[in-house]
């Protein structure tokens, strides 16, 4: 774990440059996407969901006077293909950590939501619950929120436990890594084909 923390501190010291930064978080802090992975998830041999796993860091001028906070989590287009009573959903998982020296300390969250292209999805979720790693899991009905796309520029919005201000952390996965974003988009198209069979 200590090696991971030292490596992260080194990467961050190199990453926070005008070339590496994408957008500004609420308060003006730089945002850097450190890692992005696309995964096809299967259930009983059939495609069931398309997941983007992210790891990013930003300078938090709302709660930490510019110190670095790390967000880790995933965004998932889930088909629930083997559950006849469940429709497709967008799942957003986020866990926050404060980088203090070489330590990553869990920063508990009270609320989290997505926003994209001027639309806030706050209040549109069907579930907000605790994730197994201490973060939050938020679910949105995909049919009711069909305009949401993880390959569009998107903001991860979080509110800390004990805090009142939301921090918007904007990311553009397509700009950062078009190959990974295209893999996710292609997976989503395949999943739509699977879902069309489910709803026949």
Mind explaining what this structure looks like?
The chain has 200 residues and is an alpha+beta fold. The protein has one domain (2-198). It contains three helices and eleven strands. It has helices spanning 2-15, 173-176, 178-198; strands spanning 31-43, 46-60, 67-78, 89-100, 103-106, 109-116, 119-120, 125-130, 136-141, 154-160, 167-171. The strands form two sheets. Strands 1, 2, 3, 4, 5, 8 and 9 form a seven-stranded antiparallel beta sheet that branches. Strands 7-6-10-11 form a four-stranded antiparallel beta sheet, with no helix packed on it. The longest helix has 21 residues, at 178-198. It is globular, with a radius of gyration of 17 Å. The termini are far apart.
Keywords:
disordered N terminus; 200 residues; 11 strands; 3 helices; alpha+beta; seven-stranded antiparallel sheet
Could you tell me the mean pLDDT?
88
Sheet having the most strands: 7 strands, antiparallel
Structural class: alpha+beta
Number of helices, where a helix is a run of at least 4 consecutive DSSP H or I residues: 3
**Uncertain parts:** 1-7, 17-21
How many strand segments?
11
The share of residues in extended strands comes to over 45%
Overall tally of domains: 1
Could you give the distance between the termini? 49 Å
SSE topology string:
HEEEEEEEEEEEHH
Radius of gyration (CA) equals: 17 Å
Shape descriptor reads: globular
Q: Determine the fraction of residues in helical runs and give it as a percent range.
A: 10-25%
